[in-house]
Amino acid sequence: MATITKVSPLAPAAFPDLPAIDGVRFATVEAGVRYQGRTDVMLAVLDPGTSVAGVFTRSATRAAPVLDCQDKIGGASDGPAAILVNSGNANAFTGHYGQTSVAEVTQAVSNATGVPVARVFTSSTGVIGELLPHDRIVAQLEALKAGLSRHAVEDAARAIMTTDTFPKGASAQVEIDGKTVSIAGIAKGSGMIAPDMATMLVYIYTDAQVEQSALQALLGAQTDRTFNCITVDSDTSTSDSLLLCATGASGVDTTGNATFAAALEGVMLDLAQQVVRDGEGATKFVEIRVTGAASDADAKVHGLAIANSPLVKTAIAGEDPNWGRVVMAIGKSGAAADRDLLSISFGDILVAEKGWVSPDYSEDAAAAYMKGQDLVISVDLGLGEGKSTVWTCDLTHGYIEINADYRS
């Protein structure tokens, strides 16, 4: 497997100081699932009464842990819960053996922690098509139990990494009814990023009190505005999972509360954008704003067509303001467009308008703009009120180098 030693140039300066969430404890171990010399298994144990919501990949080749989690979401919320994640092996495309591995791991977690099997959720990330050595994970359950701590969330973020170059975390705290409600989340993701539900592996915890069905509805709505608006390489993983856990420890019922919803969406968007900033080989973070579409749905189709275009992404990598490639991506998207109404800008530079290059366009100014690390490409279709924003990165030689020898 490719060894990633250089941190992304788009990485934050440091892992954020996340608040400890009452009602959840973390532990990590080095189980040797695939990696040597680093932690690769994370366990989170949640107090009784925790509501758990989840969204998952809609891939037709979903991994065994995803199928198991989907079956369990929406069940009883009165008992404790647990989440166990391993990196290095996706336990995907492993037939009945994959299901056996999930059963062995969930039962072992239950035996060690007292959490009912129906409330043990697992995720696996890494190589597809190789049998998961679940016995190595099972052998570490007692050590994981002994190491549980409220303050080990950064360790958890590191243990779930694969080709990630930095651990990802985000948080928010809001005042509701005179009390503080906290939210903290971690994520992993770097390649195989074109979510069709959420993104890679994401775990968000809050001490808010929210009934499961309300939590599920909130998560689904906010996923479409955050994780489903990012792409690195147009490939949807077999293992994408997002779990949102509300322990209720604050005693504050946030059902239907707009302040809490906005804070949660902020955490989700922060994590989603960190995944893009850690895109394999990425050197540019790109925001694509589409306005004037026939509908919001059309705007998103256009945005993702631009974001997923290898020609657009390689031009960005080469710092080339090749706006013709943006025109191409819009034309191929399948959503409504009119060449003679189209306008395109790079940052504040108007590149094209009304189906033609802008008379004031400066190639030199656009080329200078493209040398920045954070870029904005704006498109107005001139058709209606539809709008959408998506986020992506450039496509460099680094992406090829990482993925050409991923299994070696």
TrEMBL record:
Which of UniProt's keywords are assigned here?
Answer: Acyltransferase, Amino-acid biosynthesis, Arginine biosynthesis, Autocatalytic cleavage, Cytoplasm, Multifunctional enzyme, Transferase
MF terms per GO, please?
L-glutamate N-acetyltransferase activity; L-glutamate N-acetyltransferase activity, acting on acetyl-L-ornithine as donor
Q: Which family does it belong to?
A: Belongs to the ArgJ family.
What is annotated about its quaternary structure and interactions?
Answer: Heterotetramer of two alpha and two beta chains.
What is this enzyme's class at the first EC digit? Answer: transferase
Protein location: Cytoplasm
Q: Which residues of the sequence carry a binding annotation for substrate?
A: 162, 188, 199, 280, 403, 408
Q: Which residues form the active site?
A: 199
* Organism expressing this protein natively: Ruegeria denitrificans
The feature of type site (Cleavage) is located at 198-199
Which GO biological-process labels does this protein carry? L-arginine biosynthetic process; ornithine biosynthetic process
EC number(s) per UniProt?
A: 2.3.1.35, 2.3.1.1
Matches recorded under InterPro entries: Arg_biosynth_ArgJ (IPR002813), ArgJ-like_dom_sf (IPR016117), ArgJ_beta_C (IPR042195)
PANTHER family recorded: ARGININE BIOSYNTHESIS BIFUNCTIONAL PROTEIN ARGJ (PTHR23100), ARGININE BIOSYNTHESIS BIFUNCTIONAL PROTEIN ARGJ, MITOCHONDRIAL (PTHR23100:SF0)
Q: HAMAP family in the record, alphabetically?
A: ArgJ
Give any Gene Ontology cellular component.
cytoplasm
Q: Gene3D superfamilies from the entry?
A: ArgJ beta chain, C-terminal domain, L-amino peptidase D-ALA esterase/amidase
Q: Pathway, according to UniProt?
A: Amino-acid biosynthesis; L-arginine biosynthesis; L-ornithine and N-acetyl-L-glutamate from L-glutamate and N(2)-acetyl-L-ornithine (cyclic): step 1/1; Amino-acid biosynthesis; L-arginine biosynthesis; N(2)-acetyl-L-ornithine from L-glutamate: step 1/4
The taxonomic lineage of its organism, from the top, reads: Bacteria, Pseudomonadati, Pseudomonadota, Alphaproteobacteria, Rhodobacterales
The record places the site described as Involved in the stabilization of negative charge on the oxyanion by the formation of the oxyanion hole at 125-126
According to UniProt, the name of this protein is: Arginine biosynthesis bifunctional protein ArgJ
* Cited function: Catalyzes two activities which are involved in the cyclic version of arginine biosynthesis: the synthesis of N-acetylglutamate from glutamate and acetyl-CoA as the acetyl donor, and of ornithine by transacetylation between N(2)-acetylornithine and glutamate.
Q: Which reaction does it catalyse?
A: N(2)-acetyl-L-ornithine + L-glutamate = N-acetyl-L-glutamate + L-ornithine; L-glutamate + acetyl-CoA = N-acetyl-L-glutamate + CoA + H(+)
